[in-house]
Amino acid sequence: MTRATRTRMAALCVAVALLVGVASGIGVFMRGDGSTAGAVSIRGERFEYVTTGVYEYNPERLVAEGVGWDVFNLFVAVPALLLTVPAVARGSFRGRLFASGLLAYLFYQYLMYAMAWAFGPLLPLFVLIYATALGGAIWLASSIGLNGLERRFSERFPRRGMAALSFIMALVLVGMWSQLITVGLRGDLSGANLLGQTTLVVQALDLGLVVPAALFTAVALWRRSPVGYLLGTVFVVKAVAMAAAICAMLVSAWIVEGSPEVGGFVIFGVAALAAAWLGLRMYRSALPASATDLLATGAAR
C-alpha cells in the first residue's frame, strides 16, 4: 500500500469523525427545551411528540433514546475514531481493522437515523455520514487482503468464542424483535413501541442486516475461513460500540421517563463486556509482519 493511499484513508477517517461530531453535537446541544404535545396517530395510538429543537416532530421516547446515542457518539465514538488516524496513516494492520469496525458501526447508526427520524434539517448530514462510513469501512477492510489472513493471528485468537457470541446475539435479536413484531401485528401498538411511527425501523434493520452478518461471521469463524477472521475483528468493534451505545440510550430514556428498562440494560451491558473481552484477545493475538513472514516461511518448508 502506497503512502498516498494510507494518507487518503486517514483523511477519510478524520472527515467521518468531524461529520459525526457535528451531527451528534447538534443533537446534544440543540435538542430543545423538552416541550411536548400529545397526538393520536392514524392507527389510533396516543403518544407524546417533541415540539422544539432539532428533533422536533419526533416521539418523546425516540428523542430521549437519540440523545443517548448522540452523547455516546460525541464523547466515545468520535475520539476513538480520531485515535485510530495515526495508525491508519502508518498502514497498521490493527489500526485498519479497528477503524473499519468503527466505520461499520457509524454506517449502521446513521442509516438508522436517516430512516427513523422525522424529516428535518439533519437528514442530508445523516445520509452523507452513512454513505461515507460505508465506503470507508469497505475500503479499509478490502485493503487487508484475505490470502493467508488467518496466519496474521496467533492461536490465541478467540475464534470459537467470537463465533458463539455472534450466534447468540443473532438469536437474541431474532427472539426480541420477533416477539415485538408479533405483539404489534396483534394490535397492541403500545406494546410494540411503535410510538406513532409508520413501522419498526430498528427491528427491520437488525433483522435484515445485523442478524445475517452475525450468522455469517459465526459460520465463517467456525470453519476457520479467512473471511471469518476479517469479519470477526471488524464485527467485534461494531458490537462493542453498538451495545455500549444502546446502554447509553437506555440510560437517557430512563432519565426522561423515570423508569429503567433493566432487562435491556443487562442484556446489552453483558454483550458489550463480552465483546470487549473477546475484542481485546483478538487484537492482542494479531502478529507483527515479521512474525507473519516467519510463520509463512515455516509453513512453506
Can you give me a brief rundown of this structure?
The chain is mainly α and 301 residues long. The protein has helices at residues 3-29, 60-90, 93-116, 123-142, 159-185, 201-222, 226-257, 262-285, 289-300; strands at 36-40, 46-50. Helix 5 (159-185) runs antiparallel to helix 6 (201-222).
Secondary structure layout:
Elements: H1 3-29, E1 36-40, E2 46-50, H2 60-90, H3 93-116, H4 123-142, H5 159-185, H6 201-222, H7 226-257, H8 262-285, H9 289-300
Antiparallel strand pairs: 1-2
Helix pairs in contact: 1-2, 1-4, 2-3, 2-7, 3-4, 3-7, 5-6, 5-8, 6-7, 7-8
* Gap from first CA to last CA: 28 Å
List unreliable stretches of 5+ residues: 290-301
What does the average pLDDT come to?
91
How many whole angstroms does the radius of gyration measure?
20 Å
CA-based shape: globular
Strand order of the largest sheet: 1-2
Helix-strand pattern:
HEEHHHHHHHH
The count of β-strands is 2
Class by helix and strand content?
mainly alpha
How many structural units, i.e. domains? 1
Q: Report the sheet-strand fraction.
A: under 5%
Helix proportion range: over 70%
| Count of separate DSSP helical elements | 9
Give a short account of the largest sheet: 2 strands, antiparallel
